[in-house]
Amino acid sequence: MQLKTLALAAVTVTIGAAALAHADVENPVVKERMDLMGDIRGAFATLGGMVQGKTAFDAEAAADAKATLEASAAMIPAKFEANEMDPESEAAPAIWEDWDGFTTMASELQTAVAALDTGSLESVQAGFRPIGAACGACHQGYRVD
Ligand code: HEC
Q1: How far is the CA of 14 from the centre of ligand 1 (A)?
Q2: Of 135, 140, 144, best ligand 1 pocket probe by most atoms within 8 Å of the beta carbon
Q3: In this structure, which residue's CA is closest to atom 8 in ligand 1?
Q4: What number does the ligand 1 atom closest to the CA of 143 have?
Q5: pTM to 2 decimals?
Q6: Model pLDDT, residue 145
Q7: Which CATH number fits domain 27-142: 2.130.10.10, 1.20.120.10, 3.30.43.10, 3.30.420.10?
Q8: Looking at residue 85, what DSSP letter applies?
Q9: Ligand 1 center to residue 90 CA distance, Å?
Q10: Are 116 and 127 spatial neighbours (Cβ–Cβ below 8 Å)?
Q11: What is the largest CA-CA distance in the chain?
């Protein structure tokens, strides 16, 4: 009973921390694009866990993660189109100064995700690196740290 209460408390704390991460973001447009990146990170982490051997390979979970990444990558231009800012945002002005370059980076992520074969651990390992490279390339040019 006590253990169960403790476990529940731990879950509540974790969810609370995730919700708090963006508690200070007041601009709803910025919040939405951060949430989109959060979904992308979640799916990417699912694949990363398998690639690194932290979780067992699961073809269904890998296919789900791929579907989430495909859908989310396709939404990047729409979610970033409005030139909106918030003190919490890490978006660089280059996004709107060089919109074509930014959307090209989003397409490159889509291409890398489309090429991912989720059928085996080996194929996920092979396709994971280009996806990570596409994240990094866009962050380097269009996100300030
Ligand atoms: C086309 C450009 C682009 C691509 C591709 C991209 N990102 Fe981002 N990402 C951004 C920008 C810009 C921000 C900053 C948004 C803001 O703070 O307003 C960001 C923010 C983030 C954040 C922080 C979100 C937050 O809560 O503040 C995470 C995590 C993230 N990206 C993960 C990823 C991962 C993982 C990938 C690849 C699977 C990826 N991104 C691909 C542009 C991109």
Answers
A1: 22
A2: 135
A3: 37
A4: 12
A5: 0.88
A6: 76
A7: 1.20.120.10
A8: -
A9: 9
A10: yes
A11: 58
